[in-house]
Amino acid sequence: MQRTQGAAADPESALRIAEEVVRLAKQAGVTEAEALVVSGESALTRFANSEVHQNVASSEASVNLRVARGRRVAVASSGRTDAEGLRALVERAAAIAAYVEELEDWAGLPEPGATNAEPVEAAWSDGTGGATPELRADGARAVIAAADAEGVMAFGSFSTDAEAFAVANSKGVRAAERRTTSQLLTVAMGPDNGTGYAEDCSVDATAIDGAALGREAAERARASASPVDIEPGDYPVVLNHYAVVDLLDMLGYLGFSALAVAEDRSFWEAGKQVASPLVTITDDGRDPAGLPMGFDAEGVAKQRLSLLDRGICRDLAFDAQTASRAGHHSTGHGLPAPNPYGPFPTNMAMAPGEATTDELIGGLERGLLVTRFHYTNPVYPKRVVITGMTRDGTFLVEGGRIVGPVRNLRFTMSYLDALGGVEAISRDRRCLRGLLGGSVVPAVRLSSFSFTGATRAE
């Protein structure tokens, strides 16, 4: 009998393990204890050179234990959930806590809040929980068929994940839910250096249209063949959804974190206008358009954040520790301990506009259409100045029409300045997996984007 993916994603069982770990830790004499249990199954089907060539799957469980002896805080983790493994984990964490230095500003573990960490039903799909290798292979074959029709080669992967998340602590926090995610991505490669990219991410694997993604990537690969040189400089641009997700990732990573603000390395300042009034960015763990989750790694219910409201800074992501330092409350954005990075928004969404993609392009007299960014890195974090490259389809637009492909360009640009120049936003949005989680993003037209270097033909 074939095992159904997701059979190991049992939140009740995960919570029982978390509660047992906390009980054992209290018996060991610690002051406080918190257990995070993640269990489930992951599977991946890869294809290359227009052939499915690999299918892998794993079933795993992890237990992350944070304990405190007064102000001495220690963390240990294990992949074992049997009785002996749990006892060994507790002994190790308790022993570490006896020797680490005290944290002077340790405020303790979160307590049960007024808002319960209720599970989000939209975080789970039976379509992904019951995904089979055949389902993923069918998606891959649909991509390959579309590539064959355009005379290009398809490369990529189709992944499915079904997991249970549970958190318990010694102060009474109890939270458990099951979550699924799936992602199909492909790069098409054609003759004369043409490449194209397409991706979709969803809670429900059966909602991903492999044929549509295959056509998108293949057509882009054909259209980007024989790119020409173009001089670096400032150009108005249309950024596809795949490029916009990088903007949100970097804003979340560098700026919307309470720790970044406390350490004076963030652009964020309450009430400050940092982007165009057309730009509104939220973070909502219960939004079914993205990859929902009801609570964070500390068992705190996720709150909806208005990060940018018509370009104005409003909310920040807090975890328990940064909240205690600021006299605030946790917004449910804690990451697994130990966490030196602070809280991050993991369910961001940019509000849609009114334009179609054709209308975005039609507004360019002379500019560039960018499919996505590659190898992006911060240069000046406080201004979100990022350097990177374009990839998999960069096109010159004249008179509102695409006239041909250009070679990839390097850019160095403040993403704040970019969002300050937003002229129009598409009404359609996509859920894409980024650096920090799933983001829901539109395409945008910007008045100016700085390209500082160009690639050349050998």
Output the keywords.
PmbA/TldD fold; 458 residues; 38% strand; alpha+beta; globular; five-stranded mixed beta barrel
Describe the structure.
The mean pLDDT is 96. This protein has two domains: 11-207, PmbA/TldD superfamily (PmbA/TldD fold, 2-Layer Sandwich), CATH 3.30.2290.10; 227-458, no CATH class. Helix content is 23%, strand content 38%. The strands form three sheets. A six-stranded antiparallel β-sheet has the order 3-2-1-4-5-6. It is globular. By secondary structure, the chain is α+β, with helices and mostly antiparallel strands. It has ten helices and 17 strands. The chain starts with 10 loop residues before the first helix and ends with a strand.
Q: Determine the oligomeric state from the structure.
A: single chain
Q: Report the sheet-strand fraction.
A: 35-45%
Morphology call:
globular
Helix content: 10-25%
In terms of per-residue confidence, which ranges show pLDDT below 50 for 5 or more consecutive residues? none
List SSEs in N-to-C order.
HEEEHHHEEEHEHHEEEHEHEEEEHEE
Q: What is the makeup of the main sheet?
A: 6 strands, antiparallel
Strand order of the largest sheet: 3-2-1-4-5-6
Short description:
The chain has 458 residues and is α+β, with helices and mostly antiparallel strands. It has helices at residues 11-27, 83-97, 126-129, 133-150, 210-223, 241-254, 258-262, 320-326, 357-362, 415-420; strands at residues 32-48, 51-69, 72-78, 153-169, 174-189, 195-202, 233-239, 281-283, 305-309, 312-313, 348-350, 366-380, 385-398, 401-405, 409-414, 422-433, 438-454. A hairpin with a 2-residue loop joins strand 13 (385-398) and strand 14.
